[in-house]
Amino acid sequence: MARTHRMECTASPAGLLFECLDGCGRRVVVDGVSGELTIVDHGDRTAPHQGSSGGARLTSASID
Ligand SMILES: [Zn+2]
């Protein structure tokens, strides 16, 4: 059974940067204006990822 990885959110000039805290290397950027999601590094594609930043919450569905 896949373990859910947690992602830490950091504000960057390009938008919100999410980095996996569980060491698989996944990194995702969410554009601050459009909300568009760009995967920078896929990391472990089989693991569900979940991250949160204030009111905005990303689920595995939106990150994958
Ligand atoms: Zn991960």
Describe this structure in words.
Strands 4-3-2-1-5-6 form a 6-stranded mixed beta sheet. The protein has one helix at residues 60-63; strands at 5-12, 15-20, 27-31, 37-41, 49-53, 56-58. With 64 residues, the protein is mainly beta. The model has no long low-confidence stretch (mean pLDDT 81). Zinc ion is lined by residues 5, 20, 22, 24, 26, 43-44, 47, 49.
How would you state the average pLDDT, rounded? 81
Helix content: under 10%
How many H/I helical runs? 1
Radius of gyration computed on alpha carbons: 11 Å
Report how far apart the termini are. 17 Å
The small-molecule ligands in this entry are: zinc ion
State the strand order across the main sheet. 4-3-2-1-5-6
How many structurally independent domains?
1
Tell me, briefly, the overall form.
elongated
Largest pleated sheet? 6 strands, mixed
Succession of helices and strands: EEEEEEH
Provide a quick synopsis of the model.
With 64 residues, this protein is mainly β. It has one helix spanning 60-63, and strands at residues 5-12, 15-20, 27-31, 37-41, 49-53, 56-58. The protein has one domain (5-63).
